[in-house]
């Protein structure tokens, strides 16, 4: 198994691509409104599929159906399962992302189906995707990783997510939360 250091060494040589598109994010509404101040681009540093504890990461989906499935899966079986959610949209222009739909990238990183879709919450070690996220967070060339939705992984429908690392975003990369008429409400990099 690779570690974050070996992923860091691989990043420079991995094929990366640009993405310019609209993304979707669902968050707990009550958590959002109790923020001080409320922030659309809030990161907690809590571990998730593509980031270990202490590494800030923003999770978006490529469509609303996938964002909703990811939100529902996160809270399924908990007391928060029926909480209201807030859905918002972002316009992104990221020059270099690692795309885990590309077989060449998956092979170069040595990733398996279990690495992409397996459980991460109870892992005693960093998962390969968390190690990749840690490596991305330590540099400024690659801003995000595109990965398949585990929430939709068992269904016939496929969906894709983007894990964006705020500290890796430098101009001309851009993430904008869209408001009325497409005007940005919040953006990265911050001015």
List the helices and strands and how they pair.
Elements lengths: L3 H8 L5 E12 H5 L24 E4 L2 H12 L9 E15 L3 H7 L3 H5 L10 H10 L6 E5 L11 E5 L9 E5 L5 E5 L3
Parallel strand pairs: 3-4
Antiparallel strand pairs: 1-3, 2-5, 3-6, 4-5, 6-7
Helix pairs in contact: 1-6
Textual characterization of the structure:
The structure is a single chain. This protein is 25% helix and 27% strand. It has one domain (4-151). It has helices at residues 4-11, 29-33, 64-75, 103-109, 113-117, 128-137, and strands at residues 17-28, 58-61, 85-99, 144-148, 160-164, 174-178, 184-188. It has 191 residues and is α+β, with helices and mostly antiparallel strands. Strands 1, 2, 3, 4, 5, 6 and 7 form a 7-stranded mixed beta sheet that branches.
Key descriptive features of the protein:
191 residues; alpha+beta; seven-stranded mixed sheet; 6 helices; 25% helix; globular
Largest sheet: 7 strands, mixed
In helices, the fraction of residues equals 10-25%
Number of contiguous helices: 6
Distance between the termini: 39 Å
Secondary-structure element order, N to C? HEHEHEHHHEEEE
- Evaluate the radius of gyration: 16 Å
Mean pLDDT: 93
General form: globular
Structural class per helix/strand content? Answer: alpha+beta
- State the low-pLDDT regions, or none: none
Domain count: 1
Number of strands: 7
Q: Please indicate the percent range of residues in DSSP E strands (runs of 2 or more).
A: 25-35%
